Fold this protein.
Amino acid sequence: MARIVAGVATSHVPAIGVALDQGKTQDPYWQPLFAGYEFSKRWIAEQKPDVVILVYNDHASAFSLELIPTFAIGCAESFAPADEGWGPRPVPVVEGHPELAWHIAQSTILDEFDMTIVNKMEVDHGLTVPLSLMFGQPAASDFRWPCKIIPLAVNVVQYPPPTGNRCWNLGRAIRKAVESFDRDLKVMIWGTGGMSHQLQGPRAGLINREFDTAFLDGLTRDPVALTRIPHLDYVREAGSEGIELVMWLIMRGALAADAKEIYRFYHVPASNTAVGHIILENP
Amino acid sequence: MTDYNEAFKDIPGTVVFDATQSRLGFHLNQFCMSLMKAPNRAEFKADEAGYLKKFPMTEAQRQAVLDRDYNRMLSLGGNIYFLAKIGATDGHSFQLLASKMSGVTEEAYRAMMIAGGRSVEGNRSNKEGR
């Protein structure tokens, strides 16, 4: 049977992608950030997941205001990097796992989560920056990501986004779905976005290290308490874009209650954002 | 639901993109989406006012775009992820947009971020002054 072995959370700042693509990872500004992912790159090279379920949000790339799915699962064979206004990132096309993705769609819908099924979609920095941070840049001689990826897009742009509790419960339903998939697959789930940041208005640049640290602690200490944080508190305490943290709760909901923290990294700033990163392993 | 939306208005310097803003800004944001295509970016750059006339936006929205007044665009229903496409068309970084919206120079904004960002103290609530 398929099993979820670990969860990863990481921010997905677009400027990180730009720094990577322009070879600026050793600049004094960026070096501490990329150093924070060295452990993670080694860890994942040893782990060798078959599939990553990658929870992220689209930033007006694949979804405009014409269509706003709350939860959308990518069931296609592949997903091309989006042109976000300065050309697509020079990263490999994302290869999906249609069989498992459709299984998760069916299982979660029958579990009363109204998932949107997506068969054609471009993926933006929300999905590709976490891949770059965790896997590095694939060699030109073997230009592909080392595993299959199932994109799971969550609306956190148009209010109201899903509640933290809804995200947590979706994570639980995803775990049930994966564990009922009759193939021997090593699966990871990643929650991306966050941590505290605000990109708009006179309050732009807001960072709240205390809130972020408590959130990171809560992922192992008392994750259920995190599911009760109202949207208002995310926006007030972690900035208008800090609301992305609800996506981490899908990741956490899909793990065992006693999942262990094996790595954590926190860095301010990457452009406008507090970068948070954590690795949790299932027992 | 009214209470849900109203509660956010107590947060200083922040526009939450709720149903009201989304309805107000639909065409402004659709204009921004059009800038994802290179030929449209070229057309916009060649004749900004003419290009904006192709979208059924209000005059105030068009003027805010021409002025690159991002706070005004936000108040008129723009969403920052959509508005960022105007910035990208101009070749401006997100940090430059953020500095404009918070009324400081890009250098000052960048220095604030390196020093740990804008503190939440005093930025939580207008009503409670905290």
